[in-house]
Backbone:
């Protein structure tokens, strides 16, 4: 564990270019910021503002064109793709808008999947996966496949999967984008609880103000740059 | 990552698309079954030829009466019996010759009690047993003295013994060969089929003198249709052949430029030709079958490529949650390997079953050897790796973000 308040995420002049037919598109134009362990951050912005690109870089799914990214003091730009995969497995959990569960696997097997890549044996990973499903309130549904679950339930399975290897950070990309307001509230309450009770660092990309309001810090992107970075009071649940 | 998990994952993926997996495997099943069956038939034929050659005797010549061509017109060998018993004796005295037996062949009906049996009868001398390396199951072979005095004694093959005598001991019994009584003095050890497919145990051997007097009523006494000759060693075969030719030409007073009235054939060389012919046939059958195995492998590659494209998003998800490139590579490689090896297993069952059926229904000799089974498994494994590797590498080379975005 790092000392409280020490930056878990530290980016410096981060830039990302994409080659297009009409030349180079600069998705990120020099972003510098720090996120400490235990923070709950919302990243907002219109589509094309660079927030998703930023999220992919923070999630170690992509590498920056220029600039540096240190995760827990480690220079991510220097890591091989296998080391990045191990880092994603160990330190990072992802929650996507479209849930991204494997449709042919049961909820239990979906949650156990990251544990398989962590090299944990079959019995141990089933036990741990079951515990995670119970943590998100789906202990009874572990043998259902995603198609047999509602959207809110699927997203909770996805959250259980993100939690499976007990990572320190969860990146959520529009996690409530496919959910109605009631289930959105349930999912956001779960996120708040995880942040508050377990100290998991949460980075949430959204374009909905009422979802961003759950976070205690809001970073706003526009045209590949940070235009606003403000602390905000926590929403009373 | 743990290997059992890889197999679990592969198994799950394959059972999710049962029909597709089955059809993909079918190519391997047919390929392996074809290879096993073809090799079984080829090796069965080879084994048969090998045992026929062994049963024939080694370093053999057969000298036939008559020329291959006579005065420009081809005539059948053995048409005019020009070889005499004395020729056979003279050949035996040559330095490179071990044994020389004149033979007068024919067919006759045998009768014992109420049973009769048609078989081939060979009039010959004791040297025949030496030349053919033929041992006795019981009793003894006839002697030179028996030949000299035209004794009515016979040595019978296993088939004749079984057909005429059943469980009785034939030695000492009297049988009638074309009405003439002969005493059975021995039973030959079993030899099985000859190269031309005849049952060598379905035969009777009698002294050549007795055969000509009592059975064939030949007008040409002391003449043989052919002489079987054994050289002392394989190395002396050529020298032996030359000296036989010289000897017979001078004995038959054949001048320079005149055609021979006999034909010397190197049976060992003929047998080797037969053996290499079956070997080539066996190789050819195997090669044709191997092509279907390769086609099966291409089928696997095809389906694996489709599968990688279809499952791009799955690959992206797996990468996002921590699958390394090599984990993805292994996942797809093991899927391909599982397909090819299960296909191989089923193919083996069909191949071995098919070989058994061929033996039962068509009566062809087959031999499923451990080597051919091992080879089929090995080749299937290689095919799985070879044709699975490209799709697997394609999957492993995907960019996680692009993969996640795909629908």
Residues:
């Amino acid at each position: 564990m790092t000392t409280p308040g020490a930056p878990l995420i530290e980016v410096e002049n981060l830039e990302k270019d994409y080659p297009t037919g009409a030349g180079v598109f600069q998705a990120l134009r020099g972003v510098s910021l720090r996120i400490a362990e235990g923070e709950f951050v919302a990243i907002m912005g219109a589509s094309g503002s660079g927030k998703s690109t930023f999220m992919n870089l923070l999630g170690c799914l992509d590498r920056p064109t220029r600039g540096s990214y240190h995760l827990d003091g480690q220079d991510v730009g220097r890591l091989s793709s296998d080391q990045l995969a191990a880092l994603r497995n160990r330190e990072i959990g992802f929650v996507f808008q479209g849930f991204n569960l494997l449709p042919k696997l049961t909820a239990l097997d979906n949650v156990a999947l990251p544990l398989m890549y962590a090299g944990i044996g079959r019995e141990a990973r089933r036990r741990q996966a079951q515990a995670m499903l119970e943590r998100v309130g789906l202990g009874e549904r572990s043998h259902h496949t995603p198609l047999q679950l509602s959207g809110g339930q699927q997203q909770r399975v996805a959250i259980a999967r993100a939690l499976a290897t007990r990572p320190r950070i969860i990146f959520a990309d529009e996690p409530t984008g496919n959910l109605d307001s009631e289930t959105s509230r349930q999912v956001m309450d779960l996120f708040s609880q995880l942040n508050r009770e377990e100290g998991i660092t949460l980075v949430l990309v959204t374009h909905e103000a009422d979802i961003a309001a759950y976070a205690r810090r809001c970073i706003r992107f526009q045209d590949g740059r940070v235009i606003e970075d403000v602390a905000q009071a926590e929403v009373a649940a | 990552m743990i290997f059992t998990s890889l197999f679990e994952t592969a198994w799950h993926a394959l059972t999710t698309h049962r029909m597709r997996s089955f059809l993909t495997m079918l190519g391997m099943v047919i390929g392996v079954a074809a290879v096993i069956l073809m090799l079984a038939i080829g090796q069965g034929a080879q084994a048969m030829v090998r045992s026929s050659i062994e049963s024939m005797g080694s370093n053999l010549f057969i000298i036939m009466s008559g020329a291959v061509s006579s005065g420009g017109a081809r005539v059948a060998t053995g048409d005019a019996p020009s070889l005499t018993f004395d020729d056979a004796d003279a050949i035996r005295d040559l330095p490179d010759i071990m044994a020389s037996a004149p033979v007068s062949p024919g067919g006759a009906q045998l009768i014992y009690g109420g049973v009769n049996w048609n078989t081939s009868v060979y009039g010959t001398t004791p040297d025949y047993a030496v030349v053919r390396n033929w041992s006795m199951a019981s009793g003894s072979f006839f002697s030179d003295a028996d030949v000299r005095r035209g004794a009515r004694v016979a040595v019978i093959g296993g088939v004749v013994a079984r057909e005429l005598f059943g469980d009785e001991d034939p030695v000492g019994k009297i049988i009638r060969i074309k009405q003439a009584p002969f005493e059975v003095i021995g039973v030959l050890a079993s030899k099985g089929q000859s190269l031309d497919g005849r049952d060598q145990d379905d035969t009777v051997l009698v002294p050549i003198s007795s055969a000509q007097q009592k059975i064939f009523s030949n007008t040409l006494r002391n003449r043989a249709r052919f002489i079987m000759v054994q050289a002392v060693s394989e190395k002396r075969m050529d020298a032996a052949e030359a000296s036989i030719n010289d000897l017979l030409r001078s004995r038959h007073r054949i001048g320079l430029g005149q055609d021979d009235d006999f034909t010397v054939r190197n049976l060992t060389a003929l047998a080797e030709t037969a053996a290499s012919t079956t070997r080539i046939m066996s190789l050819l059958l195997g090669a044709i079958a191997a092509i279907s195995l390769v086609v099966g492998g291409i089928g696997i590659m095809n389906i694996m490529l489709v599968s990688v494209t279809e499952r791009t998003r799955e690959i992206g998800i797996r990468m996002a949650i921590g699958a390394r490139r090599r984990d993805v590579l292994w996942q797809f490689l093991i899927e391909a390997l599982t397909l090819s090896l299960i296909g191989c297993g089923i193919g083996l069952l069909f191949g071995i079953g098919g070989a058994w059926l061929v033996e039962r229904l068509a009566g062809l000799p087959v031999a499923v050897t451990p080597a051919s089974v091992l080879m089929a498994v090995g080749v299937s494994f290689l095919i799985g790796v070879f044709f699975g590797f490209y799709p697997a590498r394609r999957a492993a080379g995907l960019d996680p973000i692009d993969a996640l975005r795909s629908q």
